[in-house]
Amino acid sequence: MQVMPWGLTGNLTLTSRSGWTVPVQLLWSSETQRYRQPYNQVGVSPRFRNWLTLHAGYRNVMFSPLTLAGHTFLGAGIEVNPGFLRVGAVVGKFNRAIDANFANPDRVATFRRTGYSAKIGLGNTRNYLDLILLRVSDDVNSIRTDSLRQIAPAENVVLGLSGRFQLNKNLLVEIDAAGSAYTHDSRTDTVATTTSRDERFRYLGQLKNLFTARESTQIYTAVQASLSYRGRWADLKLRYKRIEPDYKSMGAYYFQTDLESFTVAPALKLFKKRLQLRSSIGWQHDNLMNQKRTRTDRLIGSLSVSYASKKDLMLDLAYSNYGITQRAGYRPINDTARVAQNNRTLSGSLFKLWARETSIHTITGSGTYQELEDLNPFTADLNRNENWNYTLNYAFQHLIASIDVNVGYGYTHTTGLDLSSTFYGPSLEIGKRILKNKLGLRVNANYLKSVETLAEFNTQGIVISTGLGIDYQVTPVHRLSVNATTVLNRGLQTFREQQGTVQYSLSF
User: Fold this and answer.
1) 3-state DSSP assignment of residue 40
2) Helices of type H across 272-320
3) Which of 341, 377, 501, 508 has the fewest Cβ atoms nearer than 10 Å?
4) Which of 221, 148, 217, 233 is closest to 185 using CA atoms?
């Protein structure tokens, strides 16, 4: 018997006159199979004024972007900043144990992963300098022996430094740096750090109580820093980032590694900030350790202009260009396969509002052009691609009659080698509130036509969708919503789809 899936999410915040704020988060669903990481999560982080925070349950805490950076764990923690001292610590389970099931390839084995992180520093939210430690490891005995064919137990120690310095009201410096010692298999033999040629391993030898260097241990570093100036009519930001290949932290989910980048981002604010010009130019490359056959360089530039009038008119224009080139790494590169491309984007948007005593009218529109240009003459004809996208919407709201009307039109056209596709069509939505705005009715309809060409083949199709929604405010804290939609598709595959939902919400 198949059970209908269901889910429940909730956020509850309690406050007291003594200064406590207690936000509670709940995520509960029918997806409770033991071969997945937990779907059901309850967590709480009570906060007393602005200097004490406690954590319990499923939490994700940020100590710095390169160490403990939002990975969900089940455990407890504390953060204290009573004056000029900053202290924080968390401990818990970062992954639960899951045994492999070779009859089910979707079931991936996972060790029980536990650990802790601590920080100590000086300062406050405006100016601080923190030293951070993260230590997490897998329990090799937490899963069956046959599951070890899929994975190996790992362990990780990360030391990080995070700082923020507001030098004056205009100048801000931010820096984050970290070194990560990651052992891919904690069952491998230990190595002597005192005689290693790598200075990083010799330094690691001083942390005997925290980490043991093994044959599968890798040590990589990461750093990112920025200098920001905010003036009355001009801003300037300088950014630098360098993350070595395969840099990992068990306190974060993902890093884009093997890159070094420099970015300069100036801005101008004119006519009492009604006209703003922002630009950015950056250079980025990979192959920091010369481990790849080729090195890829990226030159990234952008420019945007924004204007806001005194009469509810806003205009935005933006242009960006992403250039990619390659050069030889540890081996010569073949000119035929060399990557050299430009990806250009030009976009604009318009917003206009007319407010009357009993009604509001708004018009919004946007247009985007994208182009991929291949600069390699051997592959240019194969990779060129262009895309146009336009939207136009009109919205009307009558304040007394409680009527909302939205009318829109969209158009998208894409071309490539022997391929083109076009999608266009209108949309309409009408809403009305009655019974002293307690009952809301909404109907909508959309029509989308498609024309696609591949070589000499041409196909056409249409998609028509309609919807009906009813929303009733039973009491100030109880709300009931019922929605129904129908989708009709005609083309290579003709089908009809109908869907209905009932939603009840309680807020307090």
Assistant:
1) coil
2) none
3) 508
4) 217
